[in-house]
Amino acid sequence: MNLYTIGFTKKNAETFFTFLRESDVKTLIDVRLNNVSQLAGFAKKNDLQFFLKELCGADYVHSPELAPTKEMLGAYKKGEIPWIAYEDKFLNLMSQRNIEKLITSSLLDNGCLLCSEHEPHLCHRSLVIQYLNEHSNLELTVKHLY
């Protein structure tokens, strides 16, 4: 099963939507806590819904159950906890939420996890994939778009 990830920072709209269209993404799965921030530019919920349908023939789904808590994310961004502690807390949170039971294979198949971070290695979208690979029967082939 093909699954993609993408961050919208350091990309203009043309690059962002070209990546999605060329990868044949069927559903953009927004894993951000805040999907309406003015700082998100073209990546605000309502804009994404429109552009995805018109430019890519894709759907948009907001999945806040795949996002960290505000407190957890804030502590990491402020430098109060290191990545390793953030990673542990977020993996435990996904376990408590039983995300493997909430997320369907049809949603993930040719889906793309969206967050703001440009690169995936220090972004929770990579932790979502790690968790699903370890706790579900899904065989995810992952490609990061950046």
Outline:
This protein is α/β, with parallel strands linked by helices and 146 residues long. The chain contains seven helices and five strands, in the order βαβαβααααβαβ.
- What series of H and E elements makes up the topology? EHEHEHHHHEHE
Q: Determine the N-to-C terminus distance.
A: 20 Å
Mean pLDDT: 95
- The DSSP helix count reads 7
Query: What structural class do the secondary elements suggest?
Result: alpha/beta
Order of strands in the sheet with most strands: 3-2-4-1-5
Low-confidence stretches: none
Task: Give me the CATH architecture, please.
Answer: 3-Layer(aba) Sandwich
Helix content: 40-55%
3D shape = globular
> What is the rounded Rg?
14 Å
Largest sheet: 5 strands, parallel
Number of strands: 5
**How many structural domains in the coordinates?**
1
Name of the CATH first level: Alpha Beta
Q: In the CATH scheme, what's the topology name? A: Cobalt-precorrin-4 Transmethylase, domain 1
Beta-strand content bin: 15-25%
InterPro entries: DUF488 (IPR007438)
Organism: Alteromonas genovensis
Protein name: DUF488 family protein
Pfam families: DUF488
